[in-house]
Amino acid sequence: MIRLDKLTILGLSLLVTSFIAACGGGGGGGGDNGGAQSVTVSGSLIIPAFVVTDSDVNDVVTTPVPNHPLTAAQSVPNPVNIGGYVNQPREGFPGHSFNSGDPDDYYLIDMQAGQTLLLNIADLANDEDLDLFLYDINGTLVDASLGVTKFESLLIPADGQYYVNVYAVTGASNYLLSVGLTPQAQLPNGAFRLSDDFLPQQVLVRFNEASVQARIEDPLLAQFQFDTENYGGGVQRLKLKERAGVVASRAVVESQMSDQQRQKLDTLLAIKALQKRSDVDYAEPNYIVRPSATPNDEYYSLQWHYPQINLPQAWDITTGDNSVIVAVIDTGVLLGHPEMNGQLVAGYDFISDAESAGDGDGIDSNPNDEGDAVQEGASSSFHGTHVAGTIAARTNDSRGAAGVAWDSRIMPIRVLGKHGGNTLDLAEGIRYAAGLSNASGTTPLNRADIINMSLGGNADSQTTREAVAAARAEGVIIIAAAGNENTSQLSYPASNPGVVSVSAVDINRNLAFYSNYGSMIDVAAPGGDLRLDLNGDSRPDGVLSAGGDDSSDTLSYQLVFYNGTSMAAPHIAGVAALMKAAYPAMTPAEFDAMLAGGELTSDLGDTGRDDLYGHGLIDAFKAVDAAQQRGGGGVSVDPALSVNPQSLNFSHNLQSTTLFIEQIGGDLGSVQISEDISWLTLQANQVDASGYGSYSVTSDRSGLAAGTYSGTIQINAGSASSSVEVIMQVLDASISGDAGIHYVLLVNNDTDEVMQQFQVDAVGENVNYSFSEVASGDYLIFAGSDMDMDGIICDAGESCGAYATASQPSIITVESNDIIERDFTASYEYQSPSSQSLGIQTRTLLLRRLDTE
């Protein structure tokens, strides 16, 4: 039976917000959750091999092994996500390093030219400041990143071994240091690098009040001597004179620099000092300008899920039409999100429970997402914004990410709040979107052409079924997520007649580990897998779209990685919007017929329709082409080559993966593949006579020394070509995945109480945990580290996991004497640079350890 007060969002359970807090109470016992049974709940933490933890964190439960100075550097693999903690003396929380300080962490990493180092500073609330330094194997300074924002980053100039230093300038903070394949264009703004092309000893600054000279004489800047020149717009150029002494923060850096590096470092240190002043609007280097090209949507290249379904080729035909409207029936939308600017039409809020709605009333005409968090310090999911962003985020604005049908429009319909939703509110939202009579007494100016529902439950509601049938009769194409329980159990409304049910695949086109399957699945689309990084970009292979964070007093607009069938469904809705733009008269029945006929998909799994992928993986180009052909139109496009994934990461113990090579829009001729990588083998898997299809790509580490290896696979077909960058890590036998000391918490879902805690050393691929004498009831399980010793696991910069995933916790129901086994992944949650106030992050959970209360 579906619990109507806790209707689950498929892809990110709203139930997570009922306990994300500094939970108190509890103890070692199982607690009484309404039953007499006593059960053992156990399982394994799965630790990804690319995870490494700083060897000297602040948690007193750990045994610190110093990784400073440079000669004591911690050897780590590549690609890698390193979680760590640094602090100046007497800064941060009491723990191992509180009194003496631990300002330096050094890592020895074998890296390749073109890879990037990205430092994510977790804590900025108290003016914490971390910098990033890069040394060659001889200890000579190569580059440095000095800023006062959340991210520092560096580009690796050549193949070789490097020492990487994370340095706490002030304060104390967790951090995440990532190594991966990141285009240089995606390096963050605000982090000034020693290797940047700028004029030494010149600073451009604009003060916001009073005289410049008074500020230059401030003790903070007394170590610098300036000449000043005034320019238009209040900008001044400060020219550094001779140095007033050693200004570098540490003698070890100062002693290993050329004269030019020393001058450039002086410049960056002066900028850093100015940036920290409240009376400075901005300070920056005087950059040397040369012709360059900037990608349009800054983080589009992180959206691997779009090339996977041949969207770039579909966009050659259409990017949508503003007359095509997609209703997103969900948590509402952050109406002020930059990715939603100009993308919305009027919607409605159908949450009838005022307390759940969080806006002080029942249904109203404002569909803004007021948030679903129910505990202080927790962030809301802003799930509907993520879904809407995938469908039609603002695109071609040189920021953020892209949407599938960005020239189409979103109608936000709010039915899910703090306590989920109910089928009556859902039905009213469906009727409103279709322009039918509903509880609001109003209808939209123009009805929706498509409805997306990334939500559901296991009960078949007649009220919802009839609303779906009525909307379809009005010509609305209705799409829903199949569910995330990894079961063939039917989920509704996805399994209602007339609804397109969407399962999810990962980056390798395999059914995602969480995705439902079965007789009602119609089509598959990218849903992602946050546990993996198969393309080696140091980001989890989740779906990237718009989101937000309201865990503090100020709402921040962000980009977010999520995974789930919730993320797969809007890909289908977006493609349907592209089809409607190419063929406005398309009916739901025609969409169904084209889908069943294989005109919209690439076949996966068993030939024809199957219970995993339905009629196959959506192919945006085929779908748009089929729509325009059926509509009697046609836009000719040149044949194109589609290769996915666009990079391969044989991280640690991964041996084999799949490469897909396809031609789109015509005949390119035979495929020609070339590579001179001695440790790599390509073998045709399922290919046609011209070589198009899937290839097994296998790495062979035998006989290779520990280190990082890279190469390129070149693919040509006619006049088209594509290259796939490949990276492989051979581990030292002593190295394995290490997420550090973890605290596994058993949480009572009804009372939000932490009932039991299990401590494990999360080293190796699988680490066991166990809770005994668990009473009957509903529970959730979380696991995380506490590197900064603040008593909270899973906060910023720390490893975190939950069953089934951290982004979509699932209830575990205890009701018998059987032993319940639940395995899940714990890892560091990747956060990527912000772009004009847009940050990219995965969800953070806050839970208090029992042993620190």
UniProtKB/TrEMBL annotation:
The active site is at D330, H383, S566. It holds the Pfam family Peptidase_S8. Residues 356-380 are annotated as: Disordered. Its EC number is 3.4.21.-. Residues 356-373 have a biased composition (Acidic residues). The keyword rRNA-binding does not apply. GO terms for molecular function: serine-type endopeptidase activity. PROSITE patterns: PROKAR_LIPOPROTEIN (PS51257), SUBTILASE (PS51892), SUBTILASE_ASP (PS00136), SUBTILASE_HIS (PS00137), SUBTILASE_SER (PS00138). It comes from the Bacteria. Residues 1-21 form the signal peptide. It is an enzyme of class 3 (hydrolase). GO terms for biological process: proteolysis. Keywords: Hydrolase, Protease, Serine protease, Signal. The keyword Hydrolase applies. InterPro entries: Pept_S8A_subtilisin_proteobac, Peptidase_S8/S53_dom, Peptidase_S8/S53_dom_sf, Peptidase_S8_Asp-AS, Peptidase_S8_His-AS, Peptidase_S8_Ser-AS, Peptidase_S8_subtilisin-like, Peptidase_S8_subtilisin-rel. Belongs to the peptidase S8 family. PANTHER family: CEREVISIN-RELATED, PEPTIDASE S8. This is Extracellular basic protease. It comes from Candidatus Thiodiazotropha endolucinida.
